[in-house]
Amino acid sequence: MQAWLCTTPTGVDALQWTELPTPEPGAGEVLVEIKAASLNFPDLLIVQGKYQIKPPLPFVPGSEFAGVVRAVGAGVRQLQVGQHVACLSGTGGFGTHVIAPAAACVPLPADFPLVDAAAFIMTYATSHHALIDRAQLAAGETVLVLGAAGGVGTAAIQIAKAAGARVIAAASSDEKCALCASLGADATINYGAADLREALKAATGGKGPDVVYDPVGGALAEPAFRSIAWRGRYLVVGFAAGPIPALPWNLALLKGASLVGVFWGDFARREPQANAAMMATLLEWYRQGKIKPVIDCTMELSQLPTAYARMGSRAVMGKLVLTR
Question: Enoyl reductase (ER) domain location, by residue (predicted)?
């Protein structure tokens, strides 16, 4: 097998395309031949040594992938050789093969495109857990999605619309706002050109959004929280902008608002049955056409450094997927 190997977490330039022995699965594991792997923001942080999870060196980055089971280890009953699966294992995706825990692999219908499958779990599971479970989003409520043209943002728009909510999509350019409108957003805000608070007042008649979905953090967090509706829920999803904001706590008091943490990975670990039920719902929604990953572009796996550069420049709309 071959893979992009990180021997020192100093950045993308330190990755090397390396030939490695093809491993054999142990008990409870499967060997997956990778056909597609998506690039997520944590994949950039992890090779820079900035992610909260720091795998032992050396490691193969790539958190999310889809492919074909080529071998199964002892005790694996739910998967068979030749089966198509998607997996979010944290590492290992940027190679030709990977050993994955069988329990982490989602069996796919035969007609589920592997490019879509590689771009599915992280964004849709995060967004569904955030909006439906943590925020308890109700039909008719208004959701503000920050960073709405990114992977989790585009998933959040689709899930909020499937739940019957009104969606205000906020992004950093007119091009990104146009993408959000094409996905069903009821209103858009280009926060690169407009004052976020004033635009939200206009879009909500002064009421503010009931739910704020924030994977961005940084300077947008405080004006968004100041704009939230009474009894609003502010979902802390991530910090793509870099800085972790420090919010004045009196804002939560004055608005009767909740600051709600979203950590889908630990939800999946702590509540596996609830997570499995959620994934079944998402697969059914995909089958029904309610949700579909937005694919920015596909690149060959050999182009991983170029893919990282595109993500680092914040040019990606939806998900970037590497194929082989």
Answer: 11-322
CA atoms of 197 and 215, how far apart (whole Å): 18
138 and 58: one domain?
no
> In this structure, are residues 57 and 6 in contact, taking their beta carbons and an 8 Å threshold?
yes
- Residues of the chain by 3-state class (helix, strand, coil), percent to 5: 35, 25, 40
pLDDT tens digits, 139-187: 999 999 999 999 999 999 999 999 999 999 999 999 999 999 999 999 9
What is the number of domains present in the chain?
2
Q: Is residue 289 part of a domain?
A: no
Per-residue pLDDT of 35-62, as tens digits, reads 999 999 889 999 999 888 899 999 999 9
pTM (2 d.p.): 0.92
Assess whether 129 and 115 both reside in one domain: no
Domain that holds residue 208: 123-265
Would residue 75 be called left, alpha or beta, if left means φ above 0 and alpha means ψ between -120 and 50 degrees?
Answer: left
- 127, 245: one domain: yes
List Cα–Cα distances, 315 to 173, 306, 308, 309, in angstroms. Answer: 10, 12, 11, 9
**Domain with 35 in it: what CATH number?**
3.90.180.10
